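Can't paste images in this forum, so I'm doing it all in text. The chain is below; anyone willing to post the predicted structure tokens underneath?
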Amino acid sequence: MRSSTWLLALAVAALVGCAPTRQKAITIKGSDTMVILGQRWAESYMASHPGAVIQVTGGGSGTGIAALINGTTDICQSSRAMKDEEKQQAAAKLGTPPVEVVVARDGLSIYVADSNPVRELTLAQIKAIYTGQVTNWKDVGGSDAAITVYGRENNSGTYVYFKEHVLEGADFAAIVQTLPGTAAVVNAVSQDAKGIGYGGAAYATGVRDLAVRKDATSEAVLPTLENMNSGSYPIARSLYYYLATPGNEAVMDFIAFALSDSGQKLVTEVGYFPAQ
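Text version of the structure:
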């Protein structure tokens, strides 16, 4: 899947390599995780392309995918891959399948407050906390205190990824407090010594990342570039741009910028990891 994604990305980059730069309005909608990154790309692109207008809004990956299918956005930014049925809906509505481009990578972070004595958890322990099987920090090496669990709304790509890859499809417990964005999760955890949350690595300000083990015998690792590149961080994911057609030169030129050395440098500055 990853190889095919990169083939598409390279195909887009090759096509735009010969395309003239157009000053044209572009709309980008979707992942809240990617809003900061999308805004940084847009600001940098517009600074070097006077007259260009790029509008970046969030609302969640599900919102962006729906907008792409309905033809109300040029680019959908998504923190999860589109599902096969969503791609089929887009193809039926737009006439061609959407083009998928991996534009960055993320180490999905598990946040706790700085004062929390717990430094690491296994994937099984994280799943047990979010499914309600473990409700006290003392059961995972912490203090005798009830765990406050924070999560995301179900239109979030981060929510979907977490449910599929960490909870292995299990339902979130009723005790999970649903918040509207990663910034809200980070803010809640930073003020709650008993809290735990999850979200993009770029948002981990004022909180501390937990090291994560694949299982009880694995090394505990943090979401760093080295661990992302080695594949040792167990909940790494791709961040995507989807577009309805590769025919819009302005959109393709902007995506080529996002994949360029300058664009990928912004990925690192924001706090995510280069696409390649």
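Residues 2-17 form the longest helix (16 residues). The domain at 107-236 is CATH 3.40.190.10 (D-Maltodextrin-Binding Protein; domain 2).
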